[in-house]
TrEMBL record:
<comment type="similarity">
    <text>Belongs to the flavoprotein pyridine nucleotide cytochrome reductase family.</text>
</comment>
<dbReference type="InterPro" id="IPR017927">
    <property type="entry name" value="FAD-bd_FR_type"/>
</dbReference>
<feature type="domain" description="FAD-binding FR-type">
    <location>
        <begin position="72"/>
        <end position="180"/>
    </location>
</feature>
<protein>
    <recommendedName>
        <fullName>NADH-cytochrome b5 reductase</fullName>
        <ecNumber>1.6.2.2</ecNumber>
    </recommendedName>
</protein>
<dbReference type="GO" id="GO:0090524">
    <property type="term" value="F:cytochrome-b5 reductase activity, acting on NADH"/>
</dbReference>
<keyword id="KW-0520">NAD</keyword>
<dbReference type="GO" id="GO:0005739">
    <property type="term" value="C:mitochondrion"/>
</dbReference>
<dbReference type="Pfam" id="PF00175">
    <property type="entry name" value="NAD_binding_1"/>
</dbReference>
<dbReference type="InterPro" id="IPR017938">
    <property type="entry name" value="Riboflavin_synthase-like_b-brl"/>
</dbReference>
<feature type="binding site">
    <location>
        <position position="197"/>
    </location>
    <ligand>
        <name>FAD</name>
    </ligand>
</feature>
<dbReference type="InterPro" id="IPR001709">
    <property type="entry name" value="Flavoprot_Pyr_Nucl_cyt_Rdtase"/>
</dbReference>
<dbReference type="Pfam" id="PF00970">
    <property type="entry name" value="FAD_binding_6"/>
</dbReference>
<feature type="binding site">
    <location>
        <position position="154"/>
    </location>
    <ligand>
        <name>FAD</name>
    </ligand>
</feature>
<dbReference type="GO" id="GO:0004128">
    <property type="term" value="F:cytochrome-b5 reductase activity, acting on NAD(P)H"/>
</dbReference>
<feature type="binding site">
    <location>
        <position position="130"/>
    </location>
    <ligand>
        <name>FAD</name>
    </ligand>
</feature>
<keyword id="KW-0496">Mitochondrion</keyword>
<dbReference type="InterPro" id="IPR039261">
    <property type="entry name" value="FNR_nucleotide-bd"/>
</dbReference>
Amino acid sequence: MSLFFRRLAKAAPFTFSNAFKGSQSSTKTSSGVIAAAISGGISLYYFTSFPNLAHLDSINEETQKKIVLNPKEWLEFKLHETANVSHNTKLFRFSFDSDAELGLDIASCILTRAPTGKNDEGKTKYVIRPYTPISDPEAKGYFDLMIKMYPEGKMSQHFAKLKPGDVVEVKGPIEKLRYTPNMKKHIGMIAGGTGVTPMLQVVEAILKNSDDKTQVSLVYANVSPDDILLKQKLDILATRHPNFKVFYTVDNPSKEWIGGLGYVSKDVVTKGLPGPGDDTLIMVCGPPGMMQHISGDKAKDYSQGELTGILKELGYTEEMVYKF
């Protein structure tokens, strides 16, 4: 694994001038300075040329963009490189044709699948899980997934065993929320762990559009400061864009921690997020326990389900809340 990619995963961006210049560009570093750039979903340099790995001659006639995703067909994407993000989270970069885009909508995810053996009829069984890429949807030739490794997680353990050159089957995009610029005056977000990935997708779409005046407030909850993913990236976005604010809270703080403490409370929501109203949308994504506490989980058929939890108690309605 390259030294650069390991530095990338530690999310320490200091320089912004040389983001992804194309499939032939290379990494440049200077004594002790980690060169990185915010480009779409992760701070990286595009440091090597990627071979043509996924082939789908699909042209979006409206935009004349070549896209590789197919919502009706499983396609193989080859793993290019991995890196550790935290003690239990890894970054995976997959490659495809360098003149094509993945084809994600805002906000959408992809489905991944992996074989888990054979059934009684001798047919292959699969485990299928959705993930939200953290790379720029308009990036060409690659996409990045940030995945937490659960000891009993069938899919995450499958990813943990992958080596560069291995392939993963992908289908999509799977549309979640159809975001349009200025659809709401203020969007509040509550995320836990890797639930920050769909939030980041929406945040970056808003911030890179100078005509989008939406105010965005993110409350990001984790177990400890070490579990906060992409913190420096989020902090830089908040520093550079006055319409984006982020607040962190953890269950187990370190001695140096100066953020919030404990679960997301009514007080945190009231002080940090927009109040109930027609021009407000609250997005929620996190582990099941957090979802139950905040909004209630989605229904068994994956529809939004009934709104419960502290958001309902604070006066929000189902029309004001979206559960990823």
